[in-house]
Design a protein that fits this description.
This protein is α+β, with helices and mostly antiparallel strands and 111 residues long. It is built from 3 helices and 3 strands; from the N terminus they run αβαββα. It has a domain of 65 residues. InterPro entries: WH-like_DNA-bd_sf (IPR036388).
């Protein structure tokens, strides 16, 4: 899962309406290693807790200012990528139409 998706998932999990069912992540679980990585990068913060199974857990995950900036930056770059792709595709289509019209005109080819 991409960093942006992970951040958005955490953001969704910590919304006001979800506060009654705050998640506790077991950090010994390999699936939750992304939390440790995101915290080291300064994109999220969480409270460390000790679980009944004597492992370390994380709760009250929140996205830092840097995390929100990361989401916004990558959202903009994704939008730019989509616009560039559509522009390129449109240019290819227009070029194809122009070439076809020239061939029809020059060689009097009819379909």
């Amino acid at each position: 899962m991409s960093t942006t998706r992970q951040l958005k998932k955490i953001l969704n999990d910590t919304r006001i309406e979800n506060q009654q069912k705050m998640k506790i992540y077991d950090l010994s679980n390999p699936e939750n290693n992304f939390l440790i990585v995101l915290k080291k990068r300064g994109l999220i913060d969480y409270i460390q807790v000790y679980l009944n199974n004597k492992h370390i857990g994380a709760t009250h995950c929140s996205i830092t200012k840097e995390g929100l900036e990361y989401i916004e930056k990558h959202k903009e770059s994704r939008q730019k990528f989509i616009v560039q792709t559509l522009t390129s595709a449109l240019a290819s289509i227009i070029t194809g139409v122009i070439v076809t019209l020239i061939l029809v005109y020059v060689f009097h080819i009819s379909k």
